[in-house]
Design brief:
The protein is 46% helix and 14% strand. It has 9 helices and 7 strands; from the N terminus they run βαβαβαβαβααβαααβ. The protein has helices at 28-39, 52-64, 81-93, 116-144, 156-159, 165-185, 203-206, 210-219, 228-239, and strands spanning 19-22, 43-48, 69-73, 98-101, 147-152, 190-197, 250-253. A 7-stranded parallel beta sheet has the order 3-2-1-4-5-6-7, sandwiched between helices. The two termini are 28 Å apart.
Length: 259
Amino acid sequence: MTLAVPRPVAAERELDGQVAIVTGGSRGIGRAIVTEMARRGADVVFTYRTDDAGARDTIAGVDALERRAVAQRADVRDAETARHVTAAALDLFGRIDVLVNNAGVARDAVVWKMTAEAWADVIETDLTAAFRFIRAAVPPMRERRYGRIVSIASINALRGKFGQSNYAAAKAGLIGLTKSVAREVGAFGITANVVAPGLIDTAMAAAMPEEVRQRSIAETVVGRLGTVEDVAQAVAFLAGPAARHITGTVLSVDGGQHM
């Protein structure tokens, strides 16, 4: 007999009145995070790079929850993007409570074939952009003496991955960045944490060769890939009041894949 797994029930509007910034929110994990933030009561400013249709779909999902989502079409590799997006959130809503660094890319190759461009693109998108968004968001959080910073890394930051030296390095750097920031901002009521997903069932995972998918599933102890909602729930927990005494930690959402 197959048992249906119920979807976790969010705390009732625990983020009501709060404002979140989410980078890379037009699809996949990012869209799920934006939607979960809104389900819990937050208004959301999210970035996306090129997917106009996806951004509209994200906004429509938030509208259905009777919250407000504002899309910012921007390249997070641009040095000014973080400042502009943060300023837009403050102009529109007057506050920033949550920052989720989700935007990321992968440019896979073994190290002896990896180009300088592929290395730089991943480091700029997955690590440097997060630093810039944290740097821009912390001052208004400090002023209000409250904030939640959650960054999306990967279990491959913890174990390495064949063909992903740039990606693993960027995500490992994100963990070090977060732990350092957690020490710097804790006295101001701000927490900083990392969510490290395993392989998640997204469009990118669906496009992988079936034998690669099955190998990843076999690595888990739960016998399935994670969903975008699994990641979004973990992010929302760390962004909420129940996680007020958690900072500088890495929460793996991987079904035991890295265990």
